[in-house]
Amino acid sequence: MRIEWEQEVSLPGMSLALDFSLLALVADCCAVCEKVPVQTAVHVLITDDSHIRDVNRAQRGIDRATDVLSFPTVNYPQGKTARTSLRALRRELDPDMNACFVGDILISREHAIAQAAEYGHSIRREFCYLLAHGLFHLFGYDHISPDEQKEMRTMEEKALQLAGVTRDGFATALPTDEQLLGLAREAMHRSYSPYSHFKVGACLLCEDGRVFQGCNVENASFGLTNCAERTAVFKAISEGATGFLTMAIAAENAAPWPCGACRQVLNEFAPAIRVLVTWKDNQVAEAPLSQLLPHGFGPKDLP
Ligand code: THU
What we know:
By secondary structure, this protein is an alpha/beta fold. The protein has helices at 14-17, 20-34, 49-60, 86-90, 109-119, 123-138, 146-162, 177-188, 228-238, 260-269, 289-292; strands at residues 2-7, 40-47, 68-72, 93-94, 99-108, 200-206, 211-215, 244-251, 274-279, 283-288.
């Protein structure tokens, strides 16, 4: 999904303290866990108690600061959430962003810091939690009845778990193939492809459980284009990740089997990697790299 970040200017140093890449992954994980059927966009304002109190008073008549506020744009049919509300979501399609705008989230920095101390977890986890909470509100969840609250909490936990933002810092399970394909689809929506209009997204799973997303990045000097798969691989290598298990790749209308160059780059680090592709209405195919690049030349061939 696409996030437009904004921060109150009265919060100097905030951009250094917040891990926006992690927050972006959390947002994608929320969309994947909800199986949101369209590309979505959201506006997130990181603010302070005084501003969030003003907004809470002006919009909801509650004269008090709070941790997170969300203002959904989508009018979900009674009892439904984003996964089953394609038509309602499509009404919010913003042609400039090529995404459905699901609403605004405000997070109070002061509340996030205080609550992290209160719950005994990191400020990082608290921001991730508040973002996930705000997003599920924008996807149509609420916590008025205990049943609704339980359902919303389950979704939040699932998304945070997928992003690896657990209470103790350890994820208990690797993402499923379906989740990896979902994360590749979310990355596809950030593709920079004004020349080919062929959007590709990738998600690389490493054995330590980390995932690296990538999209194709084109250039007016065409030859400089970088494919989605290589974006993901280069991100992983430059962050010290090794042991690549699965490469999931998503495109819109055609099966995005990796190009020759990407097969060669994958072969450098993971000749046995599984390659999954998805396109159109969730069509999926799989092949091992050894089949996509038989008799490949790689590190093993050099003394
Ligand atoms: N592309 C990829 O990102 N991955 C592939 O495996 C095949 C092609 C991109 C590159 C370019 O931006 C566009 O798709 C059309 O070739």
